[in-house]
Amino acid sequence: MLTSHEPVALLNPFERDRDPHSPNRNLTPLTTALDSEGRLVVGGCLLSDLARDYGTPLYVLDEATLRGTCRAYREALAEHYPGHALAIYASKANSSLAITALVASEGLGLDAVSAGELLTALQGGMPAERIVLHGNNKSREELALAAEQGVTVVADNWRDLELLAALAPDLQRPVQLMLRFTPGIECHTHEYIRTGHLDSKFGFDPDQLAAVLKHLATCSWAQLTGLHAHIGSQIFELQPHRDLAGVMADALALARSLGHPVVDLNVGGGLGIRYTTSDDPPSISEWVRTVAEAVAAACQERGLELPRLLCEPGRSLVASGGVTLYEVGSRKDIPGIRTYLSVDGGMSDNPRPITYQSQYTAVLADRPTAEATETVTVAGKHCESGDVLLKDLALPPAGSGDVLAVFATGAYNASMSSNYNRIPRPAAVLVHDGVADLVQRREQPEDLLRYDVLPTRLRSVK
Ligand SMILES: Cc1ncc(COP(=O)(O)O)c(C=O)c1O
Ligand SMILES: N[C@@H](CCCC[NH3+])C(=O)O
């Protein structure tokens, strides 16, 4: 019999080299353990108890893992970069008041891409001077909110600059500005999440950089603080990040030669994580060391004073700290073809499989190490045949009432969720030392009617 909270050693081969400094390399949260009956525990909380108490689907976030990833970035930057450095959380990965507060308390900054993410950041306690606003089509209102609050705006195009110039007379202070440009760097990842190649909607074309920099030298309302580029997401290679350092150092040299005392170089995010045992991403410290050494070397080669180094991780900060719990409902055995287990969520709480054909790892919460004797396909409850969360998953015999735990769902699940089929979004709990705090209430079907308006003339239609 396994003892209480013994670390789960058998879930995947990499758990043996479980490294608290590289939580992005673990499939499961750092605190994953088994209780005396062999049931899964995360953050000291029994997962099947959480499912019973809060209902399913349920997003579970492990505070120790989230803090662990923040510290891994912070400490690696302090160790490997000789100048100042700051990791900025790309909150598109998972935006909430609780995550903002946690990330802020770990000393990180935050990247927002909309008024919604920006308000969440400000109300979650992130200091405005540590926030940057991104976006390839920012509204006037979004730019005004950022500029009034003293948030740094990452200008993506000429329209951003035109809108800001128009807002400037009403502002109390110059707008803190970074320039995003397309670095022309290819990397291997899903085509939907590549951003560094020239055919990208994000950022100024590199050929325009000199013109923009010259224009900004004439804008008294703007203070250019930095340059930004981002090559994509869920990237395992390190070389594209080294290449990016050279491209950015060239841009920095150009900006300084045109009279901009640029202090920040923001190299974006993109470090991948482990979704299945065959994924093998670099650790956070390896990624940071590579980026930091490449930036320092590229600047030194060009005789440039070292800028502050900013990076913008999203997925690698929050994915591995998240587990989603579902209850299994119906089961359909099609002899010789497939067995479907349907769960009470699906593409509305995790659209990544249907969008990017992403793969996940899952176990039964109360029998995680039982012998897997069946191969099943886990389907969601949406009216869509492609609503499949996991294909060909090896499981012990499972059926109605079993709780399924899907790992590495802390990034781009809640934040990409929808109400397709008018299914309410799940609740989220933050677990720590045996305590679960509700951080996002479960939507109710009535909530989904809140914004519907039934015109009077239709009310009498029978
Ligand atoms: C501008 C920007 N910064 C940071 C990120 C975060 O990327 P990731 O979640 O892959 O670390 C993204 C998303 O790809 C992004 O578009
Ligand atoms: N939504 C993507 C990542 C997008 C990164 C944003 N620039 C994913 O789930 O993998």
TrEMBL record:
Domain of life assignment: Bacteria
Pathway the protein takes part in: Amino-acid biosynthesis; L-lysine biosynthesis via DAP pathway; L-lysine from DL-2,6-diaminopimelate: step 1/1
EC number: 4.1.1.20
SUPFAM superfamilies in UniProt: Alanine racemase C-terminal domain-like, PLP-binding barrel
EC class of the enzyme, as a word: lyase
Modified residues annotated as N6-(pyridoxal phosphate)lysine in this record: 92
Binding, pyridoxal 5'-phosphate: 270, 312-315, 412
Annotated Orn/DAP/Arg decarboxylase 2 N-terminal domain residues: 69-319
Catalytic activity, reaction form: meso-2,6-diaminopimelate + H(+) = L-lysine + CO2
CDD domains named in the record: PLPDE_III_DapDC
Ranges where the record places region Disordered: 1-27
PROSITE patterns registered for this protein in UniProt: ODR_DC_2_1, ODR_DC_2_2
Cofactors named for this entry: pyridoxal 5'-phosphate
GO molecular function, one term: pyridoxal phosphate binding
Active-site feature positions: 383 (proton donor)
InterPro entries, per database record: Ala_racemase/Decarboxylase_C, DAP_deCOOHase_LysA, De-COase2_CS, De-COase2_N, De-COase2_pyr-phos_BS, Orn/DAP/Arg_de-COase, PLP-binding_barrel
Annotated function: Specifically catalyzes the decarboxylation of meso-diaminopimelate (meso-DAP) to L-lysine.
Oligomeric form and interacting partners: Homodimer.
Family, per entry: Belongs to the Orn/Lys/Arg decarboxylase class-II family. LysA subfamily.
Alphabetized HAMAP family for the sequence: LysA (MF_02120)
Protein name per UniProt: Diaminopimelate decarboxylase
Organism: Cyanobium usitatum str. Tous
